[in-house]
Design brief:
491 residues, 2 domains, 76% helix, transmembrane helix, transmembrane
Length: 491
Amino acid sequence: MISTFFNHELKSFWRSKNTGKSIAVKVIMGILILILLSYVVFFGVFLDFILSKMFPKDNLTVTFCGIILIYFLGDLLMRMQLQELPTLKVQPYLHLPVRRNSVVGYLALTALFSFFNLWPIIIFTPFILKVILPASGGIAAVAFLLSVIALSVFNNYLAMYIKRKANLNGWIFLMAGAVLTLITCGDFLWHFYSIRSLSYSFFGALLLKPYLVLIPILLGAAMFYLNFIYLKGNLYLEELSSKKASEYKSSTEIPLLGRFGHVGDLVANEIKLILRNKRPRSALIMGLFFLCYGLIFYTQAIYGESVKIFVGMFMTGIFIISYGQFMFSWQASHFDGILVSRINFSDFLKAKYLLFTIVSTVAFFLTTPYVYFGWRVVMIHFVMYLWNIGVNTTIVLFFANRNYKRIDLSKGASFNWEGVGATQLLLSFPLLILPYVIYWPFKMLGMANTGFAALAIVGVVFIATRSFWIKQLEADFYTKRFKIAEGFRNK
C-alpha cells in the first residue's frame, strides 16, 4: 500500500499545472543541498582534527562525547524551523477500503526521508570509525552509531509532533522555543549546569556499557509511536476542525483587544493567522531570536553608539520589518474578499499599526535586561522603539502598497522565497539609512544626545500624526488596489 501512495504522489506531481516551476525549484534546491552536503562531509571527515584544535587540552574522546547532546539540541531547534511536515491528501482515501494504519504509517515513515536525519550520520560516523573503533572496539562503535541514529529519529518525530500540535495551537510552538532557549541559556549564559557534562555522563558510560544504547532506541521508538497515535486520532477533518478548534479557542481570544472594537477584532484575526501558519509564525520567532542580537555587539568594546542604533532598531522592530514587508501578501488568498467586504480600509491600517505597536512594545520590555550594559543602552532602545512604531511602521505600510506578489500560507517557511521581490530590496534602504541621516550630523558636531533626541522627536511626531498618515496610505492604496489584487491572483 505504501508503494501505491508513493505512485499516486508521483502522478499528482507530474500532472500538476505547476510541474515546470516545481521542477526548477527542486533542481535549485538540490544544487544548494549538494553544496551544503559537501561542507558537512568535509566537517565530518576532519571532525577529530577540528576538535583537537578547539580543545587542545582535553581528551579527544571526552570532547566528542560532550558535544553530541549539544549538537542534537541545535538539531532540534533547526528542525522546528526548517523541516517540513510530510503530507498526503488523505481525503480521497477515507471513503475507500484502505486501512487507516496504512495511511498513518505512510505519513509517519516518510518523515524519515529528511536530510536532517542524514547530517548526524555523515558528521559522526568518520570520528567513530577513526577514534572510537580502534580505542574501544567494534561493539562500542556500533553502539555509538546506533545511539546517534536513534537520537536523530527521536528529534525527527519530536519536531514533527511539536509542529503538528502547533498547527492547532500556535502557543505550543512558542512554548517549545522558549524551553529550548531556557535550556541553552541555563548552560551557556547562566551556568546552572553543563550540557557537555550531561552528554559525557551518558556517552562516556556507553563506551564501557554498550547495552545503554537501548535508552535512545526506546526514546526514538516511543516518539514514533506517539506520532503514529496522534496522526491516527486526528486523521479525519471533522476531528481537526470542530473538536480541536473548540478545544483551543480560548488561546486566541484576547480580552485586551476588545476595547479597540472592530480594529481589535482585526488584530485578533491577524494574531490567529500568525500563530496558525508556518511562514508568518517564523517572522515572530525570528523576532524572539533577535532579542539576543545585543549580546553580539554589547560585549565588544570596539562597537560604538552608532552600531547601538542599528541593534536597537532591529531588536525592537525586527517583527515590523520581517512581517510587515509582506503585509498584504499574507491575506493574498482572500484579498478579493477584503476588497468587496464592508471592512473600512482605514480600520485595516489601524489594525496593522496596533499589531506592530503591541509586538514592538513587548520586544522593548524584553530588551530591558540589557541595562546590565548601562542605562544608556536602554535609552537608545527606547528611542529606536519610538522610531519603529512611528516612522518604520509607516514606511513598511507604504511599501506594502507596492508589493503585488502573493504568499501561499499552506507552504512552509524554509527555503521559501515566495513573495520576495524588488520591493523588499528597496525597503531596506530607508529603514537602514534614515536614522543615521538624522543622527550623524549631530554626532559629527559632538552632540550625540541631541541626535538621539531628534530621533525620538521624529518618532513621536509620526505617532502623533498617525491619523494623517493612515489617510495618505488609504488614498495610496485605493489607487493600487486592483493591481495588488491582480498580482495576488497569479498563482
